Amino acid sequence: MTAPQKICFGFVAVIAVGTILLMMPFSTATGTWNNPVVALFTATSAVCVTGLAVVDTGRDFSFWGQLFILLLAQIGGLGYMTTTTFLIMLTGRRFDLRHKIAIQQALDRREMQGSSQIIRSIIATTLFFEITGIFLLLLVFVPDFGWDKGMWLAIFHSVSAWNNAGFSLFSNSLMDYQSSALLVLTISALIIFGGIGYQVILEMFFWLRDRLRRRPQNIVLSLDYKVAISTTLFLLFVGTVAFFFVEIRNFKTLENISFRSQFLAALFQSVTTRTAGFNSIDIGSMTTAGLFITIAFMFIGASPGGTGGGMKTTTIRVLSSCTKSILQGKEEVLLYERRIPLSLILKAVGVVVGSVTAVITCTILISLTDPGFDFIKIFFEVVSAYATVGLSTGITSDISIWGKLILILTMYMGRVGVLLFMSALLGDSKPSQVHYPEEDLLVG
Fold it and tell me: Is residue 435 part of a domain?
């Protein structure tokens, strides 16, 4: 198999195993066999770190079912190739060139050298943030539920937040804790760092380490770091302001709570909208403007190399820089005094075209299978599935079986990436030595 086919097949294999485990009687709260469609949907949502659910995770699954969901989300967040490589490293085996190429494509890296080191760094970073999140969330849950249940709630929500999975053991997600600054800030930090990319976190660590040690040399921060950090901060600020002013007069979301809770809810909504899936307000009660803002932020998504989905922040920055260059009459695209290669621009265009095509197609199909739902709710559900967000207006469990199967395929395409998915279907492309003459075309 080619590298894209190996990655895509790996996710299918993990989903299949997860489906079988979640079908077992010991995975359900009632002790009976689970519905195969429910098990398949939940396993896909967990592996694709989406968080969409057709049943109540905390009520309808037993401890073992919840544990399986958490493990699937952990594997999905790390990525199939990262998990496989880590297991190979534990056994002491060496991986060949094909495996290195698959790691390169799975992690969206430019080079193949240092694969084992980057895998170790990813595992260490994941453990550090998840354990830190567990200790902070213990301060929230233990006073309310005691040590046993409080510990499990802290573990589940910390792992789910870091992997941008969005699964919660509460029926209304985190709405009961919308005024808890400790929980909101802890979950938000886990979501942001989990979705910003491991390479960015490592660069941030080395930069802080050298600053604390007062080393004279200056670290040259990569373009990935600059774009991911600046775009993330900009989207967080714009999202917080937008949600605050759009929902401030909506008595079903923000109007009837204190200003402190309003600010925390708007901030949390800005964070979780970009692929996390938790919510501290009722999504189904949001205004139409709020839903469209949420759709836009979901579609943009997180940063490359992280646990989030969507088009990615770098894609939107490259395309916005292309627009800026056209308006300024330039013939090259610049970002932070660096020229963007044509191949990267073509890839960004391909991601957008492929993503828009997938979302439109799936929206049309579900509109045909479930014509009783409003368009905005169907569109919201499809974008949430494709961007692996997990937010819902409350229609997920009511969608027909065919609609659920379409959402399963949508989540899968969103997790593996539309370009990688198409590459796996079409096979390796063959380079061509033929060059055709250039000719102008009217555009716009």
Answer: no
CA distances from 186 to 235, 259, 276 (A): 19, 20, 13
Q: 């899968």: which residue's tokens?
A: 412
Measured N-to-C along each axis, helices 223-247 and 288-300 cross at an angle, to the nearest 10 degrees, of 170
DSSP assignment string, 96-149: -HHHHHHHHHHTT-S--TTHHHHHHHHHHHHHHHHHHHHHHHHHHHHHHHHHHH
Contact 178, 268 (CB under 8 A): yes
CA dist 392 and 351 (Å) reads 24
Of 366, 363, 329, 333, nearest to 348 by C-alpha is: 333
**How many other CB atoms are found less than 10 A from the CB of residue 262?**
21
pLDDT at 351 over 80: yes
Number of domains in the chain: 1
Each residue of 30-67: pLDDT tens digit?
A: 999 999 999 999 999 999 999 999 999 999 999 999 99
Task: Name the residue range of residue 94's domain.
Answer: 3-425
On whether residue 443 sits in a domain, the answer given is no
399 belongs to a structural domain: yes
- At 268 the three-state DSSP class reads helix
What is the dihedral sign for C-alpha 12, 18, 22, 25?
positive
If you average pLDDT over residues 181-203, what whole number do you get? 91
Alpha helices in 197-334 (DSSP H): 198-213, 223-247, 259-272, 288-300, 313-327
DSSP H or E segment with residue 346 = helix 342-369
Strand-pairing partners, residue 123, are none
Identify whether the C-beta of residue 163 lies closer than 8 Å to the C-beta of residue 49: yes
Residue 137's pLDDT band (cuts 50, 70, 90): very high
Q: Which of 57-61, 78-82, 365-369 has the lowest mean pLDDT?
A: 78-82
Distance CA 319, CA 338 (A): 15
According to DSSP, the residues that pair with 334 across neighbouring strands are 339
Do 150 and 142 form a contact (C-beta atoms < 8 A)?
Answer: yes
The answer to the question of residue 440 being in a domain is: no
